[in-house]
Amino acid sequence: MRKTALVSGASIAGLTMAYWLNRYGFKVTVVEISAGLKLGGSPIDIRGEALDAVKRMGILEKIQEVSLITTIEFVNAQNECVGTLSGLGKDDSGQDIEIHRNQLIQIIREAASTDIEYLFSNTIETVDQDGEKVMVTFKDGQTRNFDFLFGADGVHSNVRKLVFGAEENFNYFCGAYFAVLNADEHIEGQNAGIMYNMPNKMAGISSKGNTILLFRSPKLDYDYRNTTQHKQIHTAHFSGEGWEIPDILKTMTDSDRLYFDEICQIKMSSWIKGRIALIGDAAHCAGFPTGMGSSLAIQGATILADAMVENDDYPTVFQKYNDTFRPVAEQAQSFVYAGLSFLLPETQEAIDNRNRAY
Ligand SMILES: Cc1cc2nc3c(=O)[nH]c(=O)nc-3n(C[C@H](O)[C@H](O)[C@H](O)COP(=O)(O)OP(=O)(O)OC[C@H]3O[C@@H](n4cnc5c(N)ncnc54)[C@H](O)[C@@H]3O)c2cc1C
């Protein structure tokens, strides 16, 4: 009998886990709340040991083919270039690759076997477990049993909420919000962008028409699935600003492809409970300014899947994952405030100092 695994979330952590478990002989089901793969977002980085994992998955070359070299020009309110950051994603050691998030997700999905079962537009409503199995009820009414459940459903994880408790117990807000609006589903090759900072706020436009807005703020009360509310929040924070901001706000208001979220981290004393484990942002979101979310997602899922095939004793394997991957995730999390200071200087003087440094 093949062991069965349910993975919640069909993004970078979930698809990586599904890829490996299927390859190791598990019968894998992936449940995803969106009607298809949840695309969108800005380019992301694959670094360090995550690169070894994608090499072993046989997708390194495909990733390299569509990797990006990004140049960012810092501009002032008159749109004059006052600093240039070039060569992002081009690391001579080959230890850092930048790729559009959409393309990475699609590459992993294509690499994963067609033998994987996908339940789109669905989610887990109840979870229970005993020493033998995990019992799950889905939104569409089906009740099924699995040997294991992996929560890979992102920073606002449903599995974490159902099994480990409310998000507020684990969510550490970093004092800022970000929005990404994708004009282009695919960016390849050269990716040039301009970035304009106001104290505590930033706006960026890529040459492909993608836009990003960031701002510092105390915690806001909003529904993270309500796009109309997200647009109102941005208008309230950016209206009255100069440069290209009025056009960006108009594009954002007219678009239905906005991704908005808080910058936060997830910190938990344990990512495992019985036959259930969390991976990726659900377990240890490092925060967008670290640039480490996708690498951690790939690396963590790979380490856990490898361990599961090496040893049948899942409590030992889960515990080892929980103990050994924790320092890696915590180290990545420690970069978040340095990243925020770079992206969102708090004063005009700090903005000028940063720009002069490039
Ligand atoms: C649309 C989007 C845009 C993003 N843009 C950026 C960006 O610009 N820069 C950046 O650094 N990071 C971005 N991220 C986060 C980044 O993808 C992660 O930090 C990192 O890749 C780790 O991935 P993950 O698989 O753990 O989580 P995520 O990539 O967040 O994926 C979580 C998956 O779980 C699914 N899901 C959520 N709730 C449920 C549920 N109840 N049931 C089933 N499935 C569920 C989601 O639809 C999604 O497919 C974005 C995430 C999303 C979802």
The coarse overall form would be globular
Report the sheet-strand fraction: 25-35%
CATH topology of one domain: FAD/NAD(P)-binding domain
The spatial strand order of the largest sheet comes to 5-4-13-14-15-12-16
Ligands present: flavin-adenine dinucleotide
Low-confidence stretches: none
Largest sheet: 7 strands, mixed
| Rg result | 20 Å
The chain-level mean pLDDT equals 93
- The CATH class assignment of one domain is Alpha Beta
Ends: how far apart? 59 Å
Summarize the amount of helix as a percent range. Answer: 25-40%
Number of strands: 18
Explain what this protein looks like in three dimensions.
- This protein has 358 residues and is α/β, with parallel strands linked by helices.
- It has a domain at 4-52 and 99-170 and 265-336: FAD/NAD(P)-binding domain (3-Layer(bba) Sandwich).
- Helices cover 34% and strands 30% of the residues.
- The protein is built from 13 helices and 18 strands.
- The protein has helices spanning 12-23, 49-56, 60-65, 101-111, 158-163, 227-238, 245-254, 281-284, 293-310, 314-324, 326-333, 336-343, 348-356; strands at 4-8, 27-32, 43-47, 68-75, 81-88, 96-100, 117-120, 124-129, 134-138, 143-146, 148-151, 171-181, 189-198, 201-206, 211-216, 258-266, 272-273, 276-278.
- It has a 7-stranded mixed sheet, sandwiched between helices. It has a 6-stranded mixed sheet with strand order 7-2-1-11-18-17. A 3-stranded antiparallel sheet has the order 8-9-10.
- Helix 1 packs parallel to helix 9, helix 2 (49-56) packs across helix 9 and helix 6 (227-238) runs antiparallel to helix 7.
- The longest helix has 18 residues, at 293-310.
- It is globular and about 65 Å long.
- The N and C termini lie far apart (59 Å).
- The model has no long low-confidence stretch (mean pLDDT 93).
- Flavin-adenine dinucleotide binds at residues 8-14, 31-34, 38, 40-42, 44, 101, 123, 152-154, 158, 180, 259, 280-282, 288, 293-294, 297.
